[in-house]
User: Fold this.
Amino acid sequence: MSADIGATLEAFTKQHNIKHLLLSDFRRQMLPAYGAMVTDEKSPIYRYAKRSYFILDRNGVVRWMKIQDNALDLLKPEEVLQALRQVAG
Assistant:
């Protein structure tokens, strides 16, 4: 999920040869529901998306999430793989 417009995501997937679908929430309808958007009106980054990681099961139920306050804080791939293993049991 991204706050970028669909055309930007399409160009990104082509440039990086990404095979899976990237979703756009340009209108910011889902991001607040997941706590993945800055909602403090006094913040200089008000309505910006937070860097967030979600693992959903086949039924669309969120089984794991991590929302970063600082968009520059990236999880290492090993951390995401560990979360996948935990969710899979």
